[in-house]
Every structure is written in structure tokens, then in C-alpha cells.
Specification:
The protein is of the alpha/beta class. The chain has 8 helices and 14 strands. A 6-stranded mixed β-sheet has the order 10-11-9-12-13-14, with helices on both faces. It has a 5-stranded mixed β-sheet with strand order 3-1-8-5-6.
């Protein structure tokens, strides 16, 4: 997996900018002996902003840019001149990216739409200049506010693919073959387990120029929710799918039992997956005759639509598309917002190690000497950032 360009899990260090300090300048001009205070305000520190971008489909670009640093605000100057605001750091992420705190495992935000912007860390507000503090009894204040400090955080970014239909099945169940048959995707196909090592997306054409997106993930085995096989790493990619297509080969010893094992792994990983619409496809059915199909049909789950298909011969594929399109457009199948659960801190370090993201990303910033001096301790009031001076 280290050689793959598909990266769906990264850890990066983020740091917003600190606010510039206010100026303590006194106005000194010819023929104006008592000019009074005219120190300007400091500039705002830069924000760390996440922006959804549909042109990205992986987090590969962040694997080699592990430090996201916003610019610091500049200090105010004379003549009530405001300091320059720090430059915002915008991080482009693919739609479907979920962000967690790498130390506590707490869920932070979710970016699902193109152009959506989320302020991950706010920059510090700039300090007020000394001209704000002049009064009738204090006409020459020689102090100003220091800027607010920066914020820093190490975050984990997970990509959860956005697709309409997710393929769920054991290795060699025919998932990649189906995706290649009904779309233009070219997944790797071979006759050994775990041929698929990364998710694949395909656009399935339907009647009247309609289409839907199908996602193929690596095969799930019993115990995948506990970390066996590749299932644990890729199960999150079907959390966003509005419909799950379970695929069980026709030559299985017990089709219903295999379906229940897959369903149990999904419910163990995330119980909310049981609320999704499900369709069962019995693959490799070209080896069955009508008599065998009639014998198998009564053993299948009664509350789940099913269809016998063969991706090689094309048997049942048009019927499968009809069923998927009908299920996708049901009112009861409207996907709702996902409730992201915090990560278990006790397992987080092992998860980071498994993903190769356990390196220390700490960053030491060099402070300017002029910013070390605190001219006056000041308690900022909590107020809406949108109403603040930019």
C-alpha cells in the first residue's frame, strides 16, 4: 500500500497566525507639541481554512506537506495605521474528508461539498493601539494591547468516498468484475483474494442519460471490523453510500449465512449502516440453471430485494440497474447527515502506527523579540468573529 497513489488517511500539523500587537506611538510633528497617541491596531493572524475541491479524489498532496502554517499579523504603526492581516492558509481537500483531533480523537468537522469552507483554526485578533485608551484624565497612554496568541493542533484527515451504491462482499465475489461491466472503470481483476487493494469508483449509465456512482472497496472477511484483512481500513468508504449492494457468489455453501456475516461486520463497525437500503446480488449465476435458482430463492433474506446476475455474460445486469435506480429514488432512502463518532483514544496510537502516520510533527516557531514584551495584560471579550474588524 505504500506504493499506491490512493491516500485516504493523513496526519498534519496546523498552526494559525498570531495577532499583531498595537502600537504605542506618540504623534510628533513640527508645530504640534502635544500630538497625543496615534498608535494603530495590529493585524489579524491568518486562519487555517479547509476547502472542498471536487478535482481531488485522494489526500496524496497532503502526505508531502505536513505543516500548514498561516501568516502572523503585523504590528500597528503611527498615524493610526493598521497592521497587515496575516495570510490565511487554505488547505484543499477532496469532498468527503473528515477531520479529527490527533491527540484526543475528537471529531472536528466534515467537508462534503465543492467550495465548502471550514475555518479549522482561527487566527489571533490584533491588539488595539494606544489611541483607543486615551481619556480626559489619561491623555498620553504609553501602552497598547498585545495580539492574541496563535492556535495549533495536530489533526487526522480521513477520506470517505462519496458514492450512491457501495459494493459489499467477500474477496473474489465479483465486485470488480461487476464495476468493470457496468461502467468505464478499469479495476484490477484476477482469480486470487484481495486483488482490489484500494477503492474504485465508476459512473453507471442508466436510461434517458441518467447515471449513478458505484464504489468498489477491497473484500471484507469475517472479523474485518476487528482489524482482520483490509476491511477495517476501507469500511469507512461505504459509510456515505446511500445504498449497499451485497454480493455473494452462487457457488457459496450458504448464501444467507455469508450475507449475515457481512451484515454483522458492518453493524459492528458502525451500527448506523443497518439503516441503509440493501440489495442482494447472487453473482456468477451463469453456472446455475432455472431449477437451481428456484431452490436457492426461498433461502434468501425475505426483506431484501435480490437478483441473480453474471457480469461475464451480462445476465441480470439490466434488472439489477432497475432495482438499484428504484431503491435510490425512494423517499425512505434519502441519506441523512452522518453522525461521526470520536475515535477511541486507546486504539488511536495503534491506528496511526498501522497507517504509518505515527511520526512526530511538532513544530517550533521562532518568536520575534518585540512580540515577547507584554505591554499590558488584557482580557479579550468573547464576541462573534464575523463582526470583528478584518
Amino acid at each position: 500500500m505504500a506504493e499506491s497513489n490512493f491516500v485516504d488517511y493523513v496526519k498534519i500539523y496546523c498552526r494559525s497566525g498570531k495577532g499583531g500587537r498595537g502600537s504605542t506611538h506618540m504623534r510628533r510633528e513640527k508645530y504640534i507639541p502635544n500630538g497625543g497617541p496615534d498608535g494603530g491596531d495590529g493585524g489579524r493572524g491568518g486562519h487555517i481554512i479547509l476547502r472542498g475541491n471536487r478535482n481531488y479524489w485522494t489526500l496524496l498532496h497532503l502526505r508531502y506537506d505536513r505543516h500548514a502554517l498561516a501568516g502572523h499579523g503585523e504590528s500597528g504603526s503611527k498615524n493610526r495605521s493598521f497592521g497587515k492581516d496575516g495570510e490565511d492558509k487554505i488547505i484543499e481537500v477532496p469532498c468527503g474528508t473528515v477531520v479529527y483531533n490527533a491527540e484526543t480523537g475528537e471529531y472536528i468537522c466534515d467537508v462534503t461539498e465543492h467550495g465548502q469552507e471550514v475555518v479549522l483554526l482561527k487566527g489571533g485578533r490584533g491588539g488595539l493601539g494606544n489611541w483607543h485608551f486615551k481619556t480626559a484624565t489619561r491623555q498620553a497612554p504609553r501602552f497598547a494591547q498585545p495580539g492574541e496568541p496563535m492556535q495549533e493542533m495536530t489533526v487526522i484527515m480521513e477520506l470517505k468516498l462519496l458514492a450512491d451504491v457501495g459494493l459489499v462482499g467477500f474477496p473474489n465475489a465479483g465486485k470488480s468484475t461487476l464495476l468493470a461491466s457496468v461502467s468505464a472503470a478499469k479495476p484490477k481483476i484476477a482469480n486470487y483474494p484481495f486483488t482490489t487493494l484500494e477503492p474504485n469508483l465508476g459512473i453507471v449509465s442508466y436510461r434517458d442519460s441518467k447515471s449513478f456512482v458505484m464504489a468498489d472497496i477491497p473484500g471484507i472477511i469475517e472479523g474485518a471490523s476487528a482489524g482482520k484483512g483490509l476491511g477495517l481500513r476501507f469500511l469507512r468508504h461505504i459509510e456515505r453510500n446511500s445504498l449497499l449492494l451485497f454480493m455473494v457468489p452462487a457457488d457459496s455453501d450458504d448464501i444467507r449465512k455469508e450475507y449475515e456475516i457481512l451484515l454483522n461486520e458492518l453493524s459492528t463497525f458502525n451500527p448506523e449502516m443497518l439503516d441503509k437500503q440493501r440489495v442482494l446480488a447472487i453473482t456468477k449465476s451463469d453456472m446455475l440453471d432455472q431449477e437451481l435458482m428456484d431452490e436457492i430463492e426461498p433461502t434468501l433474506p425475505a426483506n431484501v430485494p435480490h437478483v441473480f446476475i453474471s457480469s461475464i455474460t451480462g445476465m441480470g445486469l439490466s434488472v439489477l440497474k432497475d432495482i438499484l435506480w428504484e431503491e435510490l429514488n425512494k423517499d425512505s432512502n434519502k441519506i441523512e447527515a452522518i453522525v461521526h463518532r470520536p475515535k477511541d483514544v486507546s486504539k488511536l496510537q495503534q491506528e496511526l502506527k498501522d497507517m504509518g502516520e505515527d511520526e512526530d510533527l511538532s513544530y517550533e516557531s521562532v518568536e520575534d523579540d518585540e512580540d515577547v514584551e507584554d505591554l499590558e495584560d488584557f482580557e479579550y471579550e468573547e464576541e462573534d468573529w464575523e463582526d470583528d474588524k478584518q
